[in-house]
């Protein structure tokens, strides 16, 4: 059986999992961005075409998808700030683990503000 | 037994730094890309949070987004510039991130090449299309039903 590698700064802990989450959220956001530029481009086709496609963003299933998308963006944004602090702040590496929990807390607070508003818009009609 | 990393000062390199490897120039593109990810990241945080607030939180949020809403926003050079900056920065930031992912996981040279060509094509197509749409957008197309258009359009 392969031996477990020795503890490093990042492997298997908050540092690694935040890196994985940053990569996964970035990957998802990129593909949404491609689709979002295409759907917005329909304003060049006709008002009717744009309104039909943007209307599909207002159904409940897409509404939940948007909530997930916003959560991914908010995490990626706040964790990106954490990455910058690790890179540029002299104490960044010492506090990288604590800063991840600050990031998670800020994501929870931001989503607690956003979700009731957005879900009321989506499900309230 | 787990392998351990020796503590203490690192040994000095046993040979002098070699001359720059083939293909690298005076400017270090990877360093520029690394720095760009951080600087554009800060700008994108502001641009995208602003975009999400105006489009999803203010007013009736997503329910008021339609052709007239977009027309109303892009009547202002402020939002045209905002969206243009967002488009370019996000596409360069995202494309560079995808390039990193391809380099990390696609092991065969040919696979990497094919994926990077596809990525470059997606980048060029999306940036060109988005830029053209922002600058050639016609908020009051002739013949369109007036109730779908921004309020500033002359009644047809």
TrEMBL record, chain B:
The chain crosses the membrane at residues 32-54, 74-92, 113-137. Residues 11-24 have a biased composition (Low complexity). Its main location: membrane. One of its GO terms (molecular function) is metal ion binding. It is found in: Membrane. GO terms for cellular component: membrane. CDD domains: SQR_TypeA_SdhD_like. InterPro entries: SQR/QFR_C/D, SuccDH_FuR_B_TM-su. Keywords: Heme, Iron, Membrane, Metal-binding, Transmembrane, Transmembrane helix. Residues 1-24 are annotated as: Disordered. SUPFAM superfamilies: Fumarate reductase respiratory complex transmembrane subunits (SSF81343). Signal peptide: none annotated. This is Succinate dehydrogenase. It comes from Actinotalea ferrariae CF5-4.
């Amino acid at each position: 059986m392969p031996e477990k590698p020795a503890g490093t700064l990042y492997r298997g802990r908050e540092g690694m999992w935040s890196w994985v989450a940053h990569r996964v959220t970035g990957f998802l956001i990129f593909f949404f961005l491609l689709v979002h530029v295409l759907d917005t481009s329909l304003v060049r086709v006709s008002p009717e075409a744009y309104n039909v496609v943007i209307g599909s963003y207002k159904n409940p299933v897409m509404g939940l998808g948007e909530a997930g998308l916003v959560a991914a963006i908010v995490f990626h944004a706040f964790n990106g700030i954490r990455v910058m602090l690790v890179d540029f702040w002299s104490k960044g590496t010492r506090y990288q683990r604590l800063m991840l929990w600050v990031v998670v807390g800020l994501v929870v607070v931001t989503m607690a503000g956003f979700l009731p508003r957005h879900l009321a818009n989506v499900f309230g009609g | 037994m787990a392998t351990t990393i020796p503590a203490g000062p690192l040994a000095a390199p046993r040979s002098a730094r070699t001359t720059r490897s083939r293909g690298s120039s005076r400017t270090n593109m990877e360093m520029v890309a690394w720095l760009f990810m951080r600087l554009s990241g800060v700008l994108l945080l502001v641009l995208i949070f602003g975009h999400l607030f105006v489009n999803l939180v203010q007013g009736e949020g997503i329910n008021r987004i339609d052709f007239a809403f977009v027309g109303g926003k892009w009547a202002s050079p402020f939002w045209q510039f905002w969206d243009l900056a967002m488009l370019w920065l996000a596409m360069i930031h995202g494309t560079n991130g995808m390039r990193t992912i391809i380099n990390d996981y696609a092991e065969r040279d040919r696979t990497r090449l094919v994926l990077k060509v596809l990525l470059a094509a997606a980048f060029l197509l999306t940036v060109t299309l988005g830029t053209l749409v922002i600058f050639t957008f016609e908020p009051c197309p002739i013949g369109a039903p007036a109730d779908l258009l921004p309020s500033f359009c002359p009644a047809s």
